[in-house]
Amino acid sequence: MFSSTWNFLKRHKRKFIFAGAVVGGVYFLGKYAQKKIREIQEREANEYIAQARRQFHFESNQRTCNMTVLSMLPSLKEAIATQLNSESLTALLKTKPTNKLEIWEDLKIISFTRTIVAVYSTCMLVVLLRIQLNIIGGYLYLDNSANKSTTAPMAPPDVQQQYLSSIQHLLGDGLIELMTVVKRAVQNSLGDVSLKQTLSLLELEQQISWIRAEVEGSEPERQLSWYMLASDQEALADQACGLTENDVLTIRLLNETRDMLDSPDFKKVLNTCMNRGFSRLLDNLATFFRSPSLESDHSPAPDNLTAMSLPLAKIIPIINGQINTICSETPSHFVQDILLNDQVKEFAANVYEAFSVPQELQK
């Protein structure tokens, strides 16, 4: 029996060796496959965790953006009101001066100018801070993800402070230049309009459209972004204040911001914000163009709103007070419409994405 078995094994030795090799190969191949599957699963899990961490950081950064905008609106309002002081004119009118008509004409120009400047500058503030804080946010994410013992931080606190201080251009020289341009456009559009002339809401909208067309199109070589950030390299270097390593990082951040401000996406988003801002302004003004008979009507027809007219002298105080709604630190419909705009959110996400991915992965 044993002899026959041995002879059988000898005759089929090669087959058994081959079968053993195949079985062993399959076994080790299975082990290798299991190892690779585990590695893939671990890599996918780590990528998912990293993506979730980055998404959480991004959302937290957007809340910071919103809070920063609201905290800066009082400063913006004060800067506008200081340069375009309508309160001194209204106080002067109460004294019944002999040049009453002249003061009313000045009040007309200043009231429209400061409200329109408030719309422009609030939109600019929202979008500029979205860019700056998402650039910093992206770099902070990389700093927190990197090995701090081998990698120098890309956005240390001193750099952040220097970089964010560039917002003072929008609250200073940029704002003053914007006021000059808007005031000239207001004068050209409303300068010859009598205080006694009546305007409907539709006609008021047309006046604002003419003013916007002049402000946004009269100097095509000067982009609206100029009012938000100093344009030349010398000014950018001056804002960085020196030649230390931190100052070099600050200049780099400022240059990256300038690139963003010059991009088509930025111009599209800013234009969307401005359109929404002026639309909200007209919505606010529409409440003053309802006749008493329509106050009890919960669904007044749009034609009725545009049919009612008010003397320009009565519109001026209404326009003059809009800055309190536009630049309100308490979340108003005006500010929320801009902060929560879908295009603003998408633009912010793209900026954060661009600066939160390691450079070697972008190549």
Automatic annotation (TrEMBL):
PANTHER family reported for this sequence: PEROXISOMAL BIOGENESIS FACTOR 3 (PTHR28080:SF1)
The protein, known as: Peroxisomal biogenesis factor 3
Role: Involved in peroxisome biosynthesis and integrity. Assembles membrane vesicles before the matrix proteins are translocated. As a docking factor for PEX19, is necessary for the import of peroxisomal membrane proteins in the peroxisomes.
Keyword terms of this UniProt record: Peroxisome biogenesis
GO biological process: protein import into peroxisome membrane
Keyword Transferase part of the UniProt annotation: no
Complex and partners: Interacts with PEX19.
Keyword Repeat recorded: no
Pfam families: Peroxin-3
One Gene Ontology molecular-function label: protein-macromolecule adaptor activity
An annotated GO cellular component: peroxisomal membrane
